[in-house]
């Protein structure tokens, strides 16, 4: 599966810790990330990650393009809901694209762990069935 990893600044350490804890699951998949998040995760875990631009510079939109082209299977986006983000319209667009294209989106560690455990046990195979089908 293609999995995007994104984190706002105050959540970067959380996503690094998450990637360390679930490295054994994540390493079996193709990983994508916004620039800084991907760099930090790779440095700490050694995971191979395709890095896009930093989120505010267009990385969120690059991941959004993959979603729109049915090339992304899951998004893990640790958001900071208590801090205003200068690129909030991009964040909102990314979330909307996940909803439109039926892409699982975890915005906190609790939901991300449910998705990871699903991956670990093969419970998210429905994505393979959905590829190529459009509901709208």
Describe this structure in words.
The protein is of the alpha/beta class. The chain has a domain at 51-71 and 92-106. It contains seven helices and five strands. It has a five-stranded parallel sheet with strand order 3-2-1-4-5, with helices on both faces. Helix 1 packs across helix 3 and helix 4 runs parallel beside helix 5. The longest helix is centred in the last third of the chain and has 13 residues, at 88-100. The radius of gyration is 14 Å and the shape is globular. Catalyzes the formation of methylglyoxal from dihydroxyacetone phosphate.
Chart the SSEs and their pairings.
Layout: E1 2-7, H1 12-21, H2 23-26, E2 30-33, H3 35-45, E3 49-51, H4 59-68, E4 74-78, H5 88-100, E5 105-106, H6 109-121, H7 126-130
Parallel strand pairs: 1-2, 1-4, 2-3, 4-5
The assembly state of the depicted protein chains is single chain
Q: Mean pLDDT, rounded to whole units?
A: 90
Number of strands: 5
Please state the CA-atom Rg, rounded to the nearest Å.
14 Å
Instruction: Give me the side-by-side strand order of the main sheet.
Output: 3-2-1-4-5
Q: Strand percentage, roughly?
A: 5-15%
Q: What is the global morphology?
A: globular
Low-confidence stretches: none
Which secondary-structure class do the elements indicate? alpha/beta
Question: What pattern of helices and strands is seen along the backbone?
Answer: EHHEHEHEHEHH
Helical element count? 7
Largest sheet: 5 strands, parallel
Proportion of residues in helical segments: 40-55%
Report, as a whole number of angstroms, the end-to-end distance.
22 Å
């Amino acid at each position: 599966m293609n999995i995007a990893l994104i984190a706002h600044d105050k959540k970067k350490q959380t996503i690094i810790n998450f990637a360390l804890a679930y490295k054994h699951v994540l390493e079996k998949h193709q990983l994508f990330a916004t620039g800084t998040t991907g760099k930090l995760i790779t440095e700490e875990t050694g995971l191979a990650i395709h890095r896009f631009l930093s989120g505010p510079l267009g990385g969120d939109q690059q991941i959004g393009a993959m979603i729109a082209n049915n090339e992304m299977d899951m998004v893990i986006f640790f958001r900071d809901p208590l801090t205003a983000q200068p690129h909030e319209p991009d964040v909102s667009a990314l979330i909307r694209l996940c909803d439109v294209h039926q892409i699982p989106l975890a915005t906190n560690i609790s939901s991300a762990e449910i998705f990871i455990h699903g991956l670990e046990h093969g419970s998210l195979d429905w994505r393979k069935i959905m590829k190529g089908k459009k509901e709208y």
